[in-house]
Fold this sequence. Notes:
The relative contact order is 0.04. The protein is largely without helices or strands. The termini are far apart. The model has no long low-confidence stretch (mean pLDDT 84). It has no helices and no strands.
Amino acid sequence: NIESGSSNTAASGKVIISSGSGAASSGVISLQTGAAAASGEIFIKSGESNSGSAGNIALSAGAGGQAGGSVSISGGSSTLGDGGGVTLKSGSSSGAKNSGSVLIAAGSAVVNTGGSVQLITGSSQSLSSGALGVNTGDAVESGGINIHSGSSTGAVSGGVQVTSGSSIGASGTI
């Protein structure tokens, strides 16, 4: 166990794990469990709060002179069973407040093109590909769905295109 000291009146201590700096590249930090018939789990969780705000968790790649680092979150593959899933979910609220939001956004660019956001389901060589659902939750007054292309200040604004896939048999409908 690696843990900081507790405090009854002030903030508890910090735990800092960092690799060394280098002229070529800095050191690597690897966090992994051992291999086994059923490997262990890794939990990253901020502390809870009884009266104030709970702590945040930030996963971010470093900035770079040539290119910024990437962040990759993926579920594990499987040769016999189902592959692992990835869940992005905001927190619920049991009081009179709103639940948290989920924001997926690409980065902006000053000179070149801004980043893209793609939602793609998995392919299959024998059965159907995965479905993609966009829906709002049930409520007394449910939320709307907006599909909007960006405005343009000098050239042509983006279009909105909805197409069904082609098929040797019957193609999909819209």
